[in-house]
Predict the 3D structure of the following.
Amino acid sequence: THFYSMSQVLKSVFRSCMANSGRVRSMQLLMDPLKHINYQLLQNRNSGIKTNFNAFTRSIVVIEQSGTYERAFDIFSRLLRERIICINGPIDDNVAALTVAQLLFLEAEDPEKGISMYINSPGGQVTSGLSIYDTMQYVRCPISTLCVGQAASMGSLLLAAGGKGQRRSLPHARIMMHQPSGGYSGTAADIKIHSEEMERVQRTLYQLYASHTGQTWDTIAEKLDRDHFMTPEMAKDFGLLDEVILKRTETLQNDE
């Protein structure tokens, strides 16, 4: 297995095509990550999102060689083969759709084998986060969660949603919980409706936190009233996670 930058992949494509026209299938596989990047750029443009093209061109591609054939994967697709899902950055509908799809795919592959979910997120949309949460509970696969960097807001709920004894954090990560926030403009009647809906969502989130941490409703309401930051050890004592780890052990590797 080798790691290449996107520019190196492009050079490899053209060199291989010139040297051996018979390896068409191999070259097709090599171009798949590029198609994905072009698709993502198009999607971002249609959505009005400014894209840093240089960030995409520096995407890591893993090339596996087997005899005369080569297979190329973007790094996250390669990790998916190892049943590892990464949630990075703000949680929105796109992140939720990708995560839900990966969970369903891995369940279809082997419903008894575990899934490892690495979380580094400041949180995001409640509805998007709950779609991931519900799918984590829905699939039959045991799911372990690991906080790297931070698990804030909705990210902290996803961290707590892992299987009992399978919720972990690296030692220098941070965890933060708070109540949902939002805003709406419109008629007084509509504003009242949205306010009532936000209160309903708040009650739902409090109940989920209480269920996964073992804390009382009143304790959850008190802690989430304002931004509540915790170290991994504090989050462990609170019940959000089960273990703070420094090194991957053989047991953890077998869990994955």
